[in-house]
């Protein structure tokens, strides 16, 4: 287990504390449409304020690619955060991020006050992890706290570079929670341990499958990636998503599972349609029954039962990626069945960010899960067994 210093291990009274948050929220006409990431950041911010720190917040938003884009300003975040915290959040509007405005705002801070810096990606150096910008950010603070798990798999100035120029770099509560749940689930799971992988491509989940096959008792495959495994077994998949370059790999993975005694489940029936839209004609077909003009959009009823039965006795479940095109109600059945099964079992259930997190929340099962990761890409790399630069950069205990 990764033993990193957290905000509970330091004294911040009277100190300037720069917190890297993940405020990369969806905006529509300047309005925040989903504020989960803001809410998840509150425990860390409140703790630092209570302890008398001068709290400076920073984050990226969208992809301004190194230039100031008004529609990607963090101004709306400052307004909403102030409402959520019940105190003023001073927004340091500064296209240069660490310009005169930001420096003046920080210099004037009293203990227990908050300043929010402008979008870190307004600076082209941010994503290149350039030293100058890292040093500028560090000049604003005495202590650095990384609480942005969503970008932990990237080495940028505001989460990794800055740690070269501050003595104290620790993780916040959200990072700590992510490391604990994802880390423990993979390295020290309560068994039976079941992993469910969906989504469209096998290629993007290769290392995850490789890593998990050494750890799980059952691996369940759904979504578009399932058709590559079905085809590898010689089944006809019609016009379904297929990665021909990965057929050999799919075969090897299934053989590896067999050798290790891991149950490897792929669909035994599929819901197929001709057009990529909700109100198209669709039907359920068995293995090897997908006709040339049809393509699979969801797992069928028998597969739903096979998968939910496999989940019933699990003590740890990690789920990444939907079972079908869940944004179309007609093809959300498989994803709903899995979400419902997870909501009903007595187990540690971990949802690996991205589409599966969206699905679980949209379907109303969010509060029934043990942990929903805030980082899709980061949680995938964690499940691959990779070291995340944003986590590695924090001080060890």
How would you describe this protein?
With 397 residues, the chain is of the alpha/beta class. The chain contains 13 helices and 17 strands. Helices cover 33% and strands 16% of the residues. α1 crosses α2, α7 crosses α8 and α9 (301-312) packs parallel to α10. The N and C termini lie close together (12 Å).
TL;DR of this structure?
By secondary structure, this protein is α/β, with parallel strands linked by helices.
Order of adjacent strands in the largest pleated sheet: 5-6-4-1-7-8
Q: What percent of the residues sit in helical stretches (DSSP H or I)?
A: 25-40%
Indicate the multimeric state: single chain
Shape: elongated
- Contiguous helical run count: 13
Q: Tell me the Rg in angstroms.
A: 23 Å
In N-to-C order, the SSE pattern is EEEHEHEHEHEEHEHEHHEEEEHEHEHEHH
Structure class: alpha/beta
Compute the number of strand runs. Answer: 17
Unreliable stretches: none
